[in-house]
Amino acid sequence: MHATARSGPMKEKDGEHPLGDAGQLALLGLFAAVWIADSFFLRLSTFPAASVSLFVRLAIALPILAVALYLVWAAHVVLYHEQPDHVATSGVFRYTRHPMYLGSLLIYLSLVLATLSLLSCALLVGIFLFYDYIAGYEERLLLEQYPDEYRRYRDRTGKWLPKIGTQT
User: Fold this and answer.
1) Are the C-beta atoms of 87 and 150 separated by less than 8 Å?
2) HSE-up of 144 (CA within 13 Å, CB side)?
3) How far apart are CA 38 and CA 112, in angstroms?
4) 32 located within any domain
5) 123-133 residue pLDDT tens
6) Residue 71 CB burial class (10 angstroms; 0-12, 13-18, ≥19)
7) What pTM was computed for the model?
8) How far apart are the two ends of the chain, measured CA to CA in Å?
């Protein structure tokens, strides 16, 4: 979420989906259990890893993890240290409307790439759908609270990836 509802009429915590935090924690626990079990013990779906060296997998996964951690940190700085009372459009929010969620998804992706667990990859698809759902919910709240400002922001900023050729 990228606008606070401290002064607004919304009842949800900072305009977030009521089940957003619980859903994220539940999916994190499920993903961790599946990823650890499949990647290190059962190895039911990690056969692609035999074709790609660990060095190559980590050379791809670690930069993605670094970007992910930066996105989460930078979004946290804007939301919780600057505490905007309007639509947050500074910092990483200039490039993507949901940098904290994107960072979380990239953390999952980096783990999938490190071990090439197909079960974890399938679960990541479901996790993405959940994040997309709660992001859409939050965007509807922002449109209600800041109709003109959020519409302008949405038109120039990508939901998940930066829009090419738009002014920020």
Assistant:
1) yes
2) 11
3) 11
4) no
5) 999 999 999 99
6) buried
7) 0.90
8) 19
